[in-house]
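chain below, 277 aa
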Amino acid sequence: MTVGRSRAGTIAANTVGVIFSLLMLFPVYWVLNTAFKPADEVLALTPTFWPKNPTFDNFVSAVKAPLFMQDMLNGIVITLLAVAGALVVGFLAALAIARFNFRGRKGILLVILGVQLVPLIALLIPLFLMLQSVSLTDSLIGVSITYLVLILPYTVWTLRGFIYGIPRELDEAALIDGCTRGQVFWRIILPLTGPGLVATSVFGFIAAWNEFIIINTLNSPGKQNLMAWLLQNQTTRGTAWGPLMAGAIITSIPVVVFFLIIQRNIATGLTAGAVKG
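prediction:
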């Protein structure tokens, strides 16, 4: 007897899946649709599902808008600094937790999990006062450090699972062959954790690139990212929906490019640390 879903059940499940996918993709389509519409079509009382007169003027307006290019550069710098710092610090912390026995190790893991339960908005005032005390408010470095700290718990927890998946016998065999602890780290642990670093960097990049509450609170308009720029273009005098949607599309391009660069390692990275940990 074959265990499985009947033909009718399979058709029903596929139909529900297709409908759900269309519902999820419709907002993305509407952003694209609006981005290529002229202003009169965007503000028309009867919405159209396809631009009658497609135009690139909205993209030109978005790129030429004040602070757009500056905020894009700010976002790239902040995101790269935060992700790189989180990977370095998080990898070393995960290595210590996974490979060494010391007092308080379980307590550290509980703290890492507990930090992720704290609402982000509850940290805004303490973060502002802390950064202000060391003159790091309204600076890219201050926001980069803040994002690094926010990404770090997930990075440590995830990389710990990947390192646990590397057999200790490999370390011992390398030490017997004459390798030092440093050589074991560089030649064995680091290369084998590569897919995990890639998978973790995806989360860190998206989290840092899409964040706007902290940077909108700590920094002035000239030192913010594109997410804050999108928010500031919605004013009480009205919203230019065409350029705003075009700006949203341009904002998503760095994430797509980053994903395409490392896509070959993502599948391996997402499953490599799932066995142990």
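The CA atoms of residues 197 and 246 lie 32 Å apart. Residues 68-99 form the longest helix (32 residues).
thats it, cya
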